[in-house]
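Appendix B, record 7
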Amino acid sequence: MKIISLGLLIACSFAWAEGANWRINEDYIDSDEYVRPRWTHRHSEMWPCDVADYPAAYLLIHKVEQRLYDINNEQMRNNIVDYVVNRLRKCKSDGQMDEHCVKRSIGYAMSFINRHQIPQQF
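Structure tokens (predicted):
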């Protein structure tokens, strides 16, 4: 019985410590000191601030940038960025970025890139 009580006490202590740690991390994320992921685009030259400053837009921007690495044509890259910026601007309303709209726009952006990519010569 003592072993079960000791095991339960250890498990509860661990759970309590993890719960306290989780709450501290949650408070940190809400603070101004939160460090953004490396692929965030605040004040990027490629992405205008009116869309890049919204955390909801980061995933789409990141996915598009990954695809842009494979495109050497500067005009094509600019057309893709313009298309994505316009899609993101359509997702804004009342000063907020609609996350669901952004997620739908990922498919549209990838389709746009596939349709307009110049076939590479092998």
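Remarks on this record: Residues 8 and 38 are 41 Å apart (CA to CA). Strands lie at 92-93, 96-97.
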